[in-house]
Amino acid sequence: MLQLLLNGAVTGLLLSLPALALSLSFSVLRFANYAIGSYLTCGAYLVYLFNVLFGWPLWIAASVGALGLATLVVAIDYLAYRPLRKRSGVTLLVASMGVAIALENLVRLFAGNSPRSFDVAVARPLRFGGLRLNYEQLTILITVLTALVLVWIIFRLTRLGRAMRAVADNPDLAAVRGISRGQVVASVWIISGVLTAIAGVLVGLDANIEPQMGWNYLLPVFTAAILGGIASPMAAVAGALTIGIAEELATLVMPPHYRMIVAFLIMATLLLVRPWGLFGTRWVTR
Amino acid sequence: MTAYLIATLTLVAITAITGLALNLQWGMGGLVNFGLFGFYMLGAYICGLLTVQGVPPLASLVGAMCSVALLSALVSLITVRLSEDYLAIVTLGFAECLRLFISYEEWLTRGTLGIAGIERPFQGLVPAQLADTALLAFTLIAVALVYGALQALAFSPFGRLVRATREDPAVVEALGKSVLTVRFKVFAVGGAILGLAGSLHAFYYTYIDPTQFSPIITAYAFMAVVIGGRGSNRGVLISTFTLILVLEGSRFLVDWVPHLGSSELAAIRLILVGAGLVLLLIIKPDGFGKEPRSAEAEIRSFTST
Amino acid sequence: MPVIGPSRRVFVAASFLVASAFGLSNSSQANEEPIRIGILAPFTGTGGPYGKEIEEAARAAAVVINDAGGVLGRKLELVAADDESVPTSGVAAARKLIDVDKVVAISGVWSSAVVLAVKPIAVEKGVALTTVGSADEITQGENKGLVWRFQTNGKDWGAAFAKAMAKDGIKTASIMVLQTPFTLSTIEPFRKAFTEAGGTVLDQVAFNPNQPSYRVEVERIFSKEPDAVFVAAYVNELSAIAKETFRSGYDSTIYAYSNAADSNGKFVQNVGKEVAEGIVHTQHVPIAKSTAYSRYLKQVNKPEGTVATYGGQVFDQIVMLALAMEKAKSTNALDFGREFPGLVNADAPSIGEPAEALKAIREGKSFRYSGAASDFRFAPNGDQTNLTYGHFRIENGVSKLVGEIR
Amino acid sequence: MSEDATGLVLRDVHAGYGGQPILHGVSMTLRKGERKVVIGPNGSGKSTLMKTAVGLLRPLSGQILLNGQDVTALRASERARRGLTYVPQEANVFRNMSVLENLRIGHEFIAPRGGLAFAGRLEEVLRLFPEIRPKLGTTAGHLSGGQRQMVAMAAALMPDPTVLALDEPSAGLSPRNAELLFEIIHRIADSGVTLLLIEQNTRLGLGAADNGVVLVAGQVRLAAPTADILANENIRRLYLGGA
Amino acid sequence: MLEARNVRVVFGGFQALDGASVRLPAGVVTGIIGPNGAGKSTLFGVLAGAVETASGEVLLEGRSVARHGPAWRARHGLTRTFQLSRELAALSVLENVLLARPKAPSEGVFSALFSRSAMRAAEEVAIEKARSLLARVDLWRLANAPAGVLSGGQKKLLELCRALMLDPRIVLLDEPSAGVNPTRIGEITEFIRTLQQEGMSFGMVEHNMDMIRSLCDRVYVLAEGRVLTEGRFDDVVNNPQVASAYLGSQP
Fold first, then answer.
1. In this model, does residue B254 exceed pLDDT 80?
2. Which end of chain E is more exposed for a tag (fewer CB within 10 A), N or C?
């Protein structure tokens, strides 16, 4: 039971980075970026490139790869999303579907289809009494928590964070208060690019690096972000933890292959009771 | 080549019906049904299961339409309170759960093995060489009927009501109409159309299995509606044609660029599909059509402040 | 592993010359349209890791055949198409192959679901369909002699696993199975054979393709500490599961399909030697000691000893199609499809070199083709029989053949 | 009049949405220290005028000068940095942020770096708005309409702007609150800020300004000192209702 | 006619209404005034059925309607307009009004598909009625324009027409004059007076004291979710408590 909780929490933390990235970009740009999964894949492959082909240590490769992905993400915004910025959220959502298809196959074109791994040996787990914690879980735990604290600090305590929250709150007012939307949008993409790349590395450590890896995470990531209340970034983390633990505990009462159904039922019930998300605030449209 | 065109046109027609259903639900009604593929799958499965039990294909089709309409309407009752994003994820989750159920409940659905040997309508009456042509004709009639019905709805007071619920449900309630009822009807009619599309899918492939149904069906439908111009049924017809043209036409790439490996070409093809979609959205901002009105007063003077 | 001796080489060259001479003397025929064969393979999607191997093998076989003068004096031309590992895309691609490219056969098809979806069209249009899909249903029903499986069926493969475990002294086993028609088809036969041999199956879980993580399943299955776990999945899932097992501290032996646990060496490369150590896999053989298989490896520039099971099977498909057409003197699949059993079931000397076999047909000699993937026979329904399974164990990153199972 | 003495100049501005012009050639000049109110019937283009002036709407043609410089091509954020700040009619505070954060945002992206320190400005602004001092920690979305209006104005004043533009400050306020608010606007104006005001409530609006502009159907119908406007029977009858 | 008894409404810990009671008698215009945030719009929401109450009762013609939503209440003669105009921007002006016609079978799926001539006949009747309403507020010339392009004041008028299209017996008007051109406020006032004389009842939240004075028999003053006082307009405005809380120096 304790093991299940631990595993669920780690899975949830893993989900929380892309979920945070997703709701961050949603809160500022008002569209759900379907391409978040393929961003994750691209991030993992970039890091793979530096780690395995260039032979750099993983943490250096991950840092460079994260910056690389951030650049890519900003470039995609410039090419694909910027011309559509005045359009409805669903138009942008459809555009991001196109971006997702293109990116995933760009990866395929250069890297092929076979699964790959980072240049990191798999090790036996640490044991604390009956509880097992493996090194990947430990890495996930430390990395994600650090990243979350950093994002929280940026978000709450810095000038940039205030600018992001201001644009998310009221873009027109932010503009007349001297905040350049373009810079905030770019910063948001950079942060979400970095977060997604880190998530890509962690997912790659946890399972494989393959062209579909991000796609596989898409539904849980969206569920987590929406469960938290998609417009409130930090709540996405809570949503992700809820999903991770709920799916894990679901296996106590159901065959594991149906665990998604339990997660879905929990989500549906929560949304019926709190239609604006678990921790989000009511959506004001008028 | 003719046979290939016939098959592709059938595909266009089925996709068009799906797009039309979404245009009613999301285009007119503002209901972001990401679970569209689930209802489509349900249509295919109900129709498929009934035909292999010996029920005549046409009766199976009607059965599928009715049951999907009913189930779809029931789902709408649960989701009526949810706003756009949440409705999207709940319907998507519902569809994914449905697919899991179909994959594992072998006693009912034959699981991942799928259902083979689905009988087409009028199969005994047309010679085998004309079977595909006959199915195309049947599908085109279905498209025409669905299109006609949806146009009739769009220009009717009901269509107006549906668009009004999309704009502001609270106003509709204040004017004495039940939003729940409107959404219920929209989900039911949309469900029936999706049941029809799913049944035609089953007839076209004659074999169905869970892997044929994925969110990509939903994605294509959204692409069709967005490219077509939200709310315009005519636009949906044109855009589905364009969409399938791009998707299928890109298969011929392989023949034009011979010195690359097929894996690379397959990847390039899908890259172009994705990029083409984004480009289409950028260069064709209003889509192919415009939303109909329920009543045009007989005055043409139009001034605005 | 037998190496092609000098005499053989001379012979190949000779037959080459004869063939080209034959081609030259019939210049009118050489000018004819090539015979087209469609390669329907998963270049993207879940089967993506196998698409390239399939296409390369088919191209290698076509080169061998064309170098031997082609079929009926005409060249073989391959047209590849991506099925995206999805039945709907598979059908669209197959229709293009049949109706636009006018292929006489569709080969390579990997996913059982794609085969099942494409089969009605192929049968209706009279196009041969050769597949590496393993689901039992593929060869069931009316096939008009058009559908041939170049893969063991799930039933025999499942039983082979039970036998391998019995030989390894396994008493208790659990099952992790990917929910697909192919993988599922091996489970019940395995259970039955394993239980009959006195083993106990402790638990079974099914999982879905493309799961983000397999931790839950691994926890559930391995925590009961069975002697062995039969992981019925492809290379992606197996890699993730093997890593998860290792890092969770479990020691049960994993049994897997060779196409997952070796797959051109990709598996070991992916998970590392330490994780792969001791994993057992089976696959029908003799892949390692057949003339045809050596020919295939040489043609695709792979070192001897490479385990590329799908490649071998697809190589056989193209060769068999060529032989059947040559023998039937027809490119109509309804005619040449029926020749398949005769080519491998004959009570005659074995030939593994495709060019030789072609020559034998032209000369009217009696022989049987001994395939690259296996020295198989065909049952009338299109299934391969008489298969021997290799029993491999990964030691220090390399698959070692530790025995054979019949 | 020399142009450096001017706060804000609009020259023959045409503007509108989706290519449909709403303003048909509006020109006006706002001198430094002047208080100007724009009045006019609904739909006459007052809000469009305001949005064009502050840079939220790009004019179709015409020119906008701020402190003598051409700012027509500049966005709202850049105009704000050049001293033009704005309080929109609705949604004029960041609802999910505290009052203090609202004020800080009002300051930090506009005031030149190393310029006026935040703490100093905060004191000065709070002296103008003593009412919001106890509310600094409150989330702005929880304030009442009048309090929000004050926070919005305070935030706009934080960077010590040369021109302050107010879009219908009395909208949605009760008569009592509207009066209280206009008392504060008087206080602000007395502090020397140049003021551009759009007001629905003509009595209050004209009372707060030196000069008035009457906008009708996207064109300036009359520009005159407020006293003259109030005295003009025609204007009173046509556009000012009974007030 | 319409009555709220001791209504309490809580929004996430915030008491929007704290035991407010109002009565809107038949055939008259009842005014509701009060400072911002007093709960006036919330009270209208409660009366119309759009806002859930924590406790208290709403009676329509003597029967409790607490369990009925806004749609039901609208069908039973009670409708409202909104403080911030809620026109349906993508629909034409005419469509906005037509939408409000009383519920009819011709609005269903069935009649749209299978009984089109009956549907059209019903539409024509409705269009005629909409025309007369729109013409009255000079919006008929804009009938085919999307409602989104109207000015703020025109939107208010459109909302009024839309409410009247329902043939209601009681209309709750939430700031009908806000944003309306001052010259037109007089016309609206006259329009409402005529309707009232024809027997329609109104509840009206309004800041324009001229309008309240000329239309309302009774006025409720709300403050902090409670009824501060009620009575005839003159009595209420002369109440010093009201003046300090709300009216300021005006009239």
1. no
2. C
Return the C-alpha torsion angle C243, C247, C253, C259, nearest 10: 0
Q: Is residue E56, in this structure, part of any structural domain at all?
A: yes
Residue-wise pLDDT tens digits, A114-158: 888 888 888 888 888 778 888 888 999 999 999 999 999 998 889
Instruction: Give the CB-side neighbour count of residue D77, counting CA atoms within 13 A.
Output: 17
In a domain? residue E236: yes
Residue C305's CB is within 10 A of a number of other CB atoms, namely 13
Residue at E212 is within a domain? yes
Q: What is the pLDDT of residue C23?
A: 41
Q: Which domain holds residue E179?
A: 2-87+168-245
**Disruptive mutation site among A52, A53, A210, A258 for chain C (greatest number of C CBs within 10 Å):** A210
The predicted model gives B95-103 an average pLDDT of 92
The band of A88, judged by pLDDT with boundaries at 50, 70 and 90, is confident
Q: Which residues of C touch A (CB under 8 A)?
A: 43-46, 48-52, 179, 205-208, 210-217, 219-220, 235-236, 239-240, 243-244, 246-249, 263, 266, 270-272, 274-275
- D218 Cα distance to chain centroid: 18
Q: What is the pTM of this model?
A: 0.85
- The domain covering D1-83+162-171+191-243 belongs, at the CATH homologous superfamily level, to P-loop containing nucleotide triphosphate hydrolases (3.40.50.300)
Q: C310: how many CB neighbours lie within 10 A of its CB?
A: 25
Q: What is the pLDDT of residue B76?
A: 85
Interface of B with D (CB under 8 A): 304-305
What digits encode the pLDDT tens for the residues B157-169?
Answer: 999 999 999 888 8
Hey, are the CB atoms on A170 and D95 less than 8 Å from each other?
Answer: yes
Give the span between the Cα atoms of A176 and B299, in whole angstroms.
Answer: 41
| Residue C111 shares a structural domain with residue C159 | no
Torsion angle of C-alpha atoms D121, D126, D132, D138, degrees rounded to 10: 30
The total number of structural domains that make up chain C: 2
Those residues with Cβ within 8 angstroms of residue C280's Cβ, 6 or more apart along the chain or in another chain: C164, C168, C228, C253, C254, C255, C256, C261, C391, C392, C393, C394
* Euclidean distance between CA atoms D97 and A166, whole angstroms: 8
Chain C partners within 8 Å of B262 (Cβ): 39, 41, 43, 51-52, 55, 80-82
Among the listed residues C298, C279, C163, C184, the one whose alpha carbon sits nearest the alpha carbon of residue C233: C184
Residue E160 lies in a domain: no
Kindly list the residues from chain C whose CB atom is less than 8 angstroms away from the CB atom of residue B11. 92
- Is C295 domain-assigned? yes
Same structural domain for residues E197 and E99?
no
CATH code assigned at C351 = 3.40.50.2300
**Do B159 and B292 touch, CB atoms closer than 8 A?**
yes
How far does the CA of residue C332 sit from the closest CA of chain A (Å)?
A: 35
Nearest-angstrom CA–CA distance, B7 and B10: 5
